[in-house]
């Protein structure tokens, strides 16, 4: 029970990486708050947790909206009396070839994937500071680390908005660690590589998903796609006391990408 009685907020927690993390945290004794933009998915995720005896709550939140994030943290603090862990997982992608990309392809991605991390961290900080304790874990991506992107949307630059936002998350992790460490709050980052989630197919056809995964397998030292349990285990490390002397760091969880090693 590495998180017994800890209150953990997981943005984008109703599906994919967020849901796997919620399940992992619940198994280690945490009280779970699912923050998401999909009300039906929130209801299902919270219901699943409660059916297994987990203390869980759901909150509708657009992380790109500063007012929403601050209202979320106040509501959770009022309900539980504390906030111990924040997992900044909510994210979107808008892949478009380099030549055709517009503001409509860039702005939402930076708003959710980067600005949302800042707003949520800003909103939770006062509640963590008052207890001199907190764990913030940001979810970046292999594409934010300098790993070579695959040909996306017909162009190597097709993932430019997403890669840029995720690179920003890594630097934001470092700056937030400097800001919050005097108050007993650690800030770390996980950069996932190839994992199959709903997100993987949100902008791809089934054929494109399989082609993408096959390309990835060939360039991974472990020659396979990761499981969400493997990823959630690393997020658990940063959220628990096991990482009490670690802050400002990014850990690549990518099966050994040969284009970076």
Describe the overall structure.
This protein is of the alpha/beta class and 261 residues long. It has a single domain (7-252), classed as 3-Layer(aba) Sandwich (Rossmann fold), CATH 3.40.50. The chain has seven helices and seven strands. It has helices at 16-27, 39-51, 66-80, 103-129, 160-180, 206-218, 228-239, and strands spanning 7-11, 31-36, 56-60, 85-88, 134-139, 185-192, 250-253. The chain has a seven-stranded parallel beta sheet with strand order 3-2-1-4-5-6-7, with helices on both faces. Strand 4, helix 4 (103-129) and strand 5 form a beta-alpha-beta unit. Helix 1 packs across helix 7, helix 3 (66-80) runs parallel beside helix 4 and helix 4 runs parallel beside helix 5. It is globular.
Output the keywords:
261 residues; alpha/beta; Rossmann fold; 7 helices; 7 strands; 43% helix
Percent of residues in helices comes to: 40-55%
**Record field, number of beta strands:** 7
Overall structural class, as computed from helix and strand content, comes to alpha/beta
Shape: globular
Kindly identify the CATH topology: Rossmann fold
- On the 0 to 100 scale, the average pLDDT is 93
What CATH architecture label applies? 3-Layer(aba) Sandwich
Tally of separate domains: 1
Query: Approximately what portion of the residues adopt beta-strand conformation?
Result: 5-15%
State the helix count: 7
Model regions low in confidence, pLDDT < 50 over at least 5 residues: none
The helix-strand sequence is EHEHEHEHEHEHHE
Spatial strand order of the main sheet: 3-2-1-4-5-6-7
Amino- and carboxy-terminal Cα gap = 35 Å
């Amino acid at each position: 029970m590495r998180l017994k009685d800890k209150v953990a907020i997981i943005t984008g927690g109703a599906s994919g990486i967020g849901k796997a993390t919620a399940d992992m945290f619940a198994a280690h004794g945490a009280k779970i708050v699912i923050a998401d933009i999909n009300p039906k998915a929130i209801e299902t995720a919270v219901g699943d947790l409660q059916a297994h005896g987990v203390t869980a709550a759901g909150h509708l939140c657009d992380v790109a909206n500063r007012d929403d994030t601050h209202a979320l943290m106040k509501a959770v603090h009022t309900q539980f009396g504390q906030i111990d862990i924040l997992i900044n997982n909510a994210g979107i992608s808008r892949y478009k070839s380099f030549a055709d990309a517009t503001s409509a392809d860039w702005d939402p991605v930076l708003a959710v994937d980067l600005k949302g991390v800042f707003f949520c961290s800003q909103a939770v900080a006062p509640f963590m500071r008052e207890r001199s304790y907190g764990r913030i874990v940001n979810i970046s991506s292999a594409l934010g680390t300098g790993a070579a992107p695959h040909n996306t949307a017909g162009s190597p630059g097709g993932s430019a908005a997403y890669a840029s936002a995720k690179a920003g998350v890594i630097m934001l992790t470092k700056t937030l660690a400097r800001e919050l460490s005097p108050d007993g709050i650690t800030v770390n980052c996980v950069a996932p590589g190839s994992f199959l989630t709903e997100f993987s197919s949100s902008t791809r056809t089934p054929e494109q998903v399989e082609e993408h995964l096959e390309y990835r397998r060939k360039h991974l030292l472990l020659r396979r796609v990761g499981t969400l349990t493997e990823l959630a285990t690393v997020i658990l490390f940063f959220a628990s006391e096991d990482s009490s002397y670690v802050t400002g760091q990014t850990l690549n969880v990518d099966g050994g990408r040969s284009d970076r090693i």
